[in-house]
Amino acid sequence: QVQLVESGGGLVQAGGSLRLSCAASRSTFVISTMGWYRQAPGKQRELVAQITSGNNTNYADSVKGRFTISRDNAKNTVYLQMNSLKPEDTALYYCTAVAGPGTVNYRYWGQGTQVTVSS
Cβ-count burial of 61 within 10 angstroms (0-12 exposed, 13-18 middle, 19+ buried)? Predict the structure, then answer.
């Protein structure tokens, strides 16, 4: 089992920045890909960014050039630096991790942290 704890959400004006953090609990499971999804009211949950254990990254087109995902494998922590925030970035942001004992992988989710961008 892996537990994920997010932090860093809040209220910011358009054009501002926020940094989200997500720490995974210590586990015998090997954590591979970590990432962030978001869900705005009335919309489906969507991928924002993800990063593999080898630091390969993938971003949604809507955040490319503004958001940067990184991770500290020693701390089992993933970060999302969000710059040039827009009102349409307002959403509940969820941390996710893929982990398993080696024979099978599971996807784990955090509780979510709210990001609100005012115009």
Answer: exposed
User: Nearest-5° angle of CA 17, CA 41, CA 78?
Assistant: 40
Q: With left for phi above 0 and alpha for psi between -120 and 50, is residue 66 left, alpha or beta?
A: alpha
Q: Using alpha carbons only, what angle is made at residue 21 by residues 15 and 22, rounded to the nearest 5 degrees?
A: 145
At 45, list the tokens: 């949950």
Token pair 């969000």 is at which residue? 82
Mean of pLDDT values over 42-64: 97
Q: Report pLDDT for 102.
A: 79
Residue pair 31/71 in contact by the 8 Å Cβ criterion? no
Phi, psi of 39 (to 5 degrees): -140, 115
